[in-house]
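Protein Entry — a single chain follows
Next Lines — sequence and tokenised fold
***
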Amino acid sequence: MAVSPEKKQRLSVYLDPDLKRRLADFAERREQSASLIAEAAIASFLSPDVDERKEAAIVKRLDRIDRNLQRFERDLEITGETLALFVRFWLNTTVPLPEEALAAARAKGGERYDQFVAALGRRLSEGPKWSRELPPESLSER
């Protein structure tokens, strides 16, 4: 004689009206019964591996955040070193101008600055980022 599987048992629950509507909508979209959807959700909630999957997903996200922070720190360090190198070079190579040439130099400097800002805007919106142009071996030494 074959043993019949245990018959499912009835459970009555009270749901918030909004949750009940969402369950009904979901079941209709999936062309499944609300009871089947609720049973699967409860089984998933009570499954011991759910916590492990959640923990693994959190660890994965944290690892991605950590890599992004490391890349950000590297890029910030490169930016600081670039600026310091430029300022040192500029201070060492720029000679003071005579008083009569200052006005023309300031005007030319303003014009060049405007060109720089325009070029920077274009570069940020269109072009490749300079940190991506650096050879990978120069970045791995950090």
Q: What stands out?
A: The chain has six helices and no strands. The mean pLDDT is 86. The chain has three domains: 17-46, 49-94, 99-127.
